[in-house]
Amino acid sequence: MAVTPVTMASATKKEDRAKETATSNSTAGSRLEVRSWEKLHPHGDVYSPRTGHTVTSKDGRVYVFGGTDRRRRQQDLYQLDLETSTWSQVQTRGALPPRRSGALGVVHESDMFIFGGYDGRDGNYFNDLYYFNFDEQRWSQMPSVVEDRPEARTDHIMVLHSSSIYIFGGYNGSSRFNDLCGYDIHAQRWSRLQAVGAVPSRRFGHSGVVHSETNRLIVFGGWDGRDTLNDLYEYSFVTNEWRKMETTGNSPPHRYRHTAVIFGDNMFVFGGVDKTHSRFNDLQRLDLVTNTWSEVCTTGSIPSSRTFHRAVVVDSKMYLLGGYDGTDRLQDLYSIDIGALTPPSLLDICADYVRTNLDAVLETTTFKGVPMDIIDHVIFKRDLEGRLRGKCKLCRPGRCCVYRMQKMESCPQDKQDPTRSNHFGCVCGHSTFHHEVVEESSTLTVIDLCSWCRVLTCFTSVCAFRTLRKEACRININKSSYALRFHLQASIRLNVVHVVNFIAAFISSQSLLRRKFKQ
Hints:
Protein name: Attractin/MKLN-like beta-propeller domain-containing protein
GO cellular component, one term: Golgi apparatus
Number of strands: 38
Keywords: Kelch repeat, Repeat
Structural class: mainly beta
Largest sheet: 9 strands, mixed
Organism: Phytophthora nicotianae P10297
Pfam families: Beta-prop_ATRN-LZTR1
Strand content: 35-45%
């Protein structure tokens, strides 16, 4: 099969674009990306839970063929109408392909082509090529031409470029492959491509996508018989040459039987499993202009870790279907928008940094001069304000705090006054304060001030200890641990403001962080 002739303009364009975006994307591998998963609940006649199914899309519909459910391999065909969110089984005509799992498919014009797979019963691996015509709802088998036809296999990749189908790699039960075969749809002819360059090692369970703008096939990961892989190769349809890609950023962990899709200049990889049987549910992005890896921060209804699932792109959304989570086969459906990103807000950056670097932040942060390692913890509790309002003259709403004390000791004055039962030492080592327990009214009254509060000033400016009458604040005393807990009454809005303020201050003082979050 002759390689489709293409001009070198695309390659030159890629180099120009890379130069143009070099500055803005110099930190692409570390820039914060936040995307949200959504679990979909379509109605109708949904397919059974399965793995190794074939998934394609056409005109706003997602098609699922075959795969292995909890009973056996299948040969049924289902469609999901994304507009109406409805599943239905397609009533097809013609000779159905034999039951199989591990086949892959592509769509060209009004036909869906499937190749390969495994029947699971008789040890049969397939190298037949079937197509389903969407207009006639009919299955047909392409003429069986033995010459240059690929060997039977499963766990290969199957992609479409121009009007040709390409097959690379796979496994037939005893051997792994690294051959590249092409099928010219119009000529109905197979050919083996004798590519040059750094040909990838034999493998199966890898992924492959076509970057049409630069006429490249991108191959990632897989299993070579000894280990899972995370290497990256590109094949040029222009020069018929393989090349190992050099990337920047943090490469994804080794894996196979994952999925990869492409949208614009980005390849997205989801899921898979490594040689220790650890499964993944991370979303990795490869910028095909700068060859930079980055992990996408995902929120929402994040799918469980899985392998042998399938994914497809419709418009700007990636749809994830089925797979195996280590316990059972799945039939769930998720979507995530992989279109253009909105630059993250300062709050998103701060929240992400707090989540991943909390220990480092606490070691170098103070609240009004009070080190974080002194403060036990903060409890945001709305009902505390209601109980304190009106009881403390100087304890205003949202401005009441109690600092943690180090220990409980006997007060020297207890001998003179039996009503004095507790004496607490301040963690900072300054003067002590006393609590007087009035048994008749069961109230807790502060009769002295802590020097720490006077010297360093409470974070909220007014301390709960500072009361003007005997009916003082009722404060929770954890006598079992001999400590007072640090309580701070604040609204959720105040909480966010404090977090943003101290993180922003920390970031501004660290040049490294400024470079890290530079857009």
